[in-house]
Every structure is written in structure tokens, then in C-alpha cells.
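[step 3/7] fold_predict: job queued, chain A
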Amino acid sequence: MKKQGLVSLLVILFCSVFSIVCKVADSENRNTEVKNAADAITATARQANVIFNAQRAFTILEKQCEFGPRPTGSVAHSETQNYLFTELQKYTNSVVLQPHTHTTETGTLHLNNILAEFGPGGAPVTGQGQNGETILLAAHWDTRPFADHDPKPENRDKPILGANDGASGVAVLLEIARVFKEYPPPRRVIIVLFDGEDYGRSTDNMFIGSRFFARNLGKWKPDYGILLDMVGDKDLTLPIERYSWNANRAFAEAIWHRASTLGLAPFQQRLGNAIMDDHVPLIKAGIPMVNIIDFDYPYWHTIEDTVDKCSPKSLEVVATLVISIVYDGL
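[step 4/7] structure written:
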């Protein structure tokens, strides 16, 4: 072999080896970057859980109850609306009211859903989030005008305080909104506080806000959602709500499986009752929705639905699951 040919061959071999080494290094770097990104999301979920303050959430529950019963159209209802709107403005610039009316036999109700938007990178965004999906977190903020399930007949026309039935889900979501301010979620999140959930004596005059929202999704349309209702009970038990399971079995089971992996004992791996609630209008609109609800609550729709029946720990249990789903996905 000529010397010049040998040199050429050595150059070719060196370049080939160098190219292979570079490719391996690039591959390792990409793998490291992917792993670091995954670790960052996991760390953020852990950090978010750490800064969720259960006692602060409980204080938000108490604050709502300080206004008194909050049925649609009352002075306390208006004061509560202002409080919730102002609180959400502390955590995102994207907070709006969604006004609507509802006609009853006694007149016209003027209601407002409260909508807040959060997105990756801190600034709220319209459209899909970093992970290509939008998640809805919902609760209702009104309370029932009459305690129709109170054991004492003389109490059945009195309004309820709604510490658990209304205030508990709102408290969890407002504290989670503060977490989002500190650690922006990796996906687009919409928090909706529904009005008029508990207004009427029949279901024709209930779930007013969620029905309106479901008919007017527009830019607020989520890929899937979670409803929180009656999640503050000291003796918290959370079986899989049957409407949620019937409509989207895999979705419901994935959420309860996540709760199991997190060691959240109140989430029981069994089917519970089918409960008409704000998730049903959204299910009918084609949105996969799960209702996290403790319906085994002896003070439901009674004047005894008061703060002393609720617990910061129960709020924390539910928040731990929601935060995991938001930051890590399902």
C-alpha cells in the first residue's frame, strides 16, 4: 500500500471513530436532558405539595363561612363573590366573571361563574399548555337556600352554612391557585367556581352555573376535568362516584389508582353512588369529568354543615392528589 493511501485510510478511520464517539456523547446528553426534565417535573410536584398549606386552605373555608349562608342572590353571596375574585387575582391576571341568568317561578336569578386561567412559564395562556392539554378544576361556591334534609322540620326552610358543601372544594382550589403562582403548572389549568349548584328544590333549578358553562365552553374547553364537592369532612371517605365511572371508566380508575400509589387512604377502591352534580352537564358535553365527593356525610343539606365538621387534613389529602395529576399527568 502506498504511504499516501495509508494516510487517507487512517484519516477515514479516525473520523469514523470520532463520529461514533460524538453520536454516543450527543445521545447521552439528550438522554440526560430528558431525564433532567422529567426529574424537574417530579421535583416541582413534590415542591408544590410541600408549599400547599392545609391550615391556610382551612382558613379560606372559614372565611367563606364568616359571610354566613351564601345562597344565590343574597348579600353574603355578593360579598363572597368579591372575596373569591379578589383572592384569585393575587395569583393570576386571568380572572373573569361569567355572568348568566336563570328564570324561576319566583323571578330571575343573576349568577356568576368565576373563571381563572393558569399556564406553564408563569404567564397565563390561551390555548394548549406545554404538555398539549388543558385540565379543568372545579367546585361550586354558592350554598343551599334551605336545609331540606335537616332532621328537625322547623329548620328545613333555613339556609345552610355549607362549610363542607361548597366551601371545602373552593378552599382547596384557592390554595392550589397560590401554589400555581409559586410553581407554574406544566399544563394549562382552568379553575372554575360554579354558581347556582345548590339553588333549587329540584334538579331543574340546580347545577345552573355548570350547565351554562357546558353550553358556552369556547376557549375554556378542557380535555378533562375534576370536580371537588364535599371534600372537607373530618371522616373523609371517597369511593369512585358512579356517573364518573360509567362515563369514563378508565379515566376514573386512573385517578383512584394514582391516589392509591400516593397512599391516600380516604380514596377507596370501590364504586359509590351515582350523584347528580356539576360534573354531569360537562360529561353530557363530551368532557371526561370525575367527581371527587364524600356523599356519606350526615350533615348534608342540614344546618349542621358547619366548620367544626371539617378538617385541614381532609383538604390536604384531596389537594395532594390534584397536585400530582396537574404536575405529573395521568
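[step 5/7] annotate
Strands lie at 95-104, 107-118, 134-140, 188-194, 224-229, 238-240, 267-271, 289-293.
The chain has two domains: 1-51, 53-328.
exit 0
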